[in-house]
Amino acid sequence: MKIFISWSGPRSKAVAELLHFWIQCVLQTARPWISSQDIDRGSLWFSEIGDQLQDTNVGVICLTQENKERPWILFEAGALTKGLTKSRVCPLLIDLEKNDVRDPLGQFN
What we know:
The chain is α/β, with parallel strands linked by helices. The chain is 39% helix and 19% strand. Helix 4 (71-81) links the parallel strand 3 (58-63) and strand 4.
C-alpha cells in the first residue's frame, strides 16, 4: 500500500518526515512517499509528484494553522481524491481542531 504524505511549511514538514519514518517502522508492507525525501535530485519534481499522486491508495495531509488554506495542500488533496473510488485522504491536524478546517478539506473525516 502506497501512502502519499502531503505537507507545506516547516512545522508540517517536520511532522510529515517523522510520520514517514514511523510508518516504515510500524507498517512494513506500507510504502510511504514524501517529496522532501523521495524525489531524486535533478528530477522534474512536479511530474514526479503527479505520478505519485496517481499511483497511491492513501494520502495523509499534515495540516497546520499556517497551511490549511494554501493552494499546494488543496491541490494535492484534490489530486488524491480525483476519480479514485478506493483511495482515502486522512487530514492529520497538528495545531488545529476539527472546526478550524473549512471545506474542501473539512469534508474528510
